[in-house]
Write a structure and sequence with these properties.
By secondary structure, the protein is mainly α. Helices cover 43% and strands 8% of the residues.
Length: 191
């Protein structure tokens, strides 16, 4: 379900980028109760939502998700970039850190990394956009941003709540598109 929501929410952004890329939308594998406010947008036949890890302390489940993502990337990749939203962004960031450091055990995927302890562990160009007034994003998004290389990261602030900048907010959509294009340019220089 969240893969479909992300596809819908990112439609204006992807259309504005007009970059000729193909996009893959990966659904988290585990059923869970829908977050507050999401039940109203679910189909009547859907009784649950999905999450990446039902119990972040279950190291076997964490390792299984990593294995599943490895298989997916092997079968469907290579990929030029990763876009994630909310838990998906956190999972993508943790997966990249895990792959870069080849750790045997990964921190719980939805526990934010600590920039004071971990430092700038993501050293590739990144873009982060969030609404500082959104209770969910205002805590996790700045932390995720600060574990990314400051010289290669862009932060875009918008007023759209817990959503991706879209057609309702042209100014934020334009800022997000410009930041993504700049980041793609940075990434191409690193190759």
């Amino acid at each position: 379900m969240f893969d479909q929501i992300f596809e819908l929410q990112s439609a204006a952004l992807r259309r504005a980028l007009n970059d000729g890329h193909e996009y893959e939308f990966v659904e988290a594998p585990h059923p869970c109760s829908p977050p507050e406010g999401f039940a109203s947008i679910m189909k009547p036949t859907e009784h649950s939502s999905t999450t990446w890890i039902p119990d972040p302390t279950d190291h076997a489940a964490v390792q299984q998700v990593v294995n599943d993502l490895d298989e997916y990337v092997e079968a469907e990749g290579p990929f030029d970039a990763v876009m994630g939203f909310s838990q998906g962004a956190q999972m993508a960031a943790n997966y990249m850190v895990y792959k870069a450091t080849r750790q045997q055990h990964m921190r719980p995927p939805f526990k934010p990394m600590d920039p004071e302890v971990d430092g700038e562990v993501i050293r590739i160009p990144t873009v982060h956009f969030w609404d500082a007034t959104d209770p969910e994003s205002s805590v996790c998004a700045p932390i995720l941003s600060r574990v990314c290389n400051a010289k290669l990261r862009q932060d875009v602030f918008h007023e759209g709540g817990h959503e991706i900048p879209g057609a309702k907010d042209r100014k934020s959509l334009t800022a997000a598109v410009e930041a993504i294009r700049k980041t793609i340019g940075w990434a191409s220089l690193q190759q």
